[in-house]
Amino acid sequence: ENDAPVNNQCGYTSLTHPWSAGVAKWLTEEVLGVKPETPGFGTFSVTPHLTSGLSRVSGDVPTPKGIISFSLDVREGTSCLVVPDGTRASLSLPLMGCRDLKVTLDGKPLVAEAFTPTHARFPEIGPGSHSLVIDYPSEPLSAKADEAFEYAIPASAVSEDSLTGGD
User: Fold this and answer.
1) Which bin fits 94, alpha (ψ -120 to 50), beta or left (φ > 0)?
2) Residue 38: how many CB atoms within 10 A of its CB?
3) What is the pLDDT of residues 145-163, one digit of tens each?
């Protein structure tokens, strides 16, 4: 019942092996930006980290209080945030190189409380399904052309490893 998988040298089957847990946690907390502030997500922050090459994110985070759903598209200037009952969210939107963005929450103006070099922080948001419109006064971090890579040894000079045989 708990024999080793075929061609596995470990001697047992791990059904809880976290091979992708680190990446999933990092993407959820640092790219999507949803992090618990208190145990069980009673309060949580939403601070997405985007770039000129990554201008939109969307994801759902299951919590004991319900699913937190967040999406943001800085090029379109749209965002949706679902805050489960019994929780509160603190929202920080990326400035994307624009200092004076205008934001509306459910059709009403939302004024930033504070600024960091990269984000505008807004007042806490209570439970519900919220729609945000973000007006960036200029093109948010226009995409840059990919830079060419220059390797110390050009790819044309690389050949089969006959000395070690790949070991």
Assistant:
1) beta
2) 10
3) 455 666 677 767 777 667 7
Query: Under 8 Å CB-to-CB from 128, ≥6 apart: which residues?
Result: 82, 83
Alpha-carbon gap, residue 73 to 1, rounded angstroms: 47
* pLDDT tens string 19-72: 666 788 889 999 999 999 999 999 999 999 998 888 899 999 999 999 999 999
Chain centroid to CA 139: how far?
A: 21
CB atoms within 10 A of CB 140: 19
Question: For residues 84-116, b (16+ Cβ closer than 10 Å) or e, as one string?
Answer: beebbbbbbbbbbebeebebebeeeebebeeee
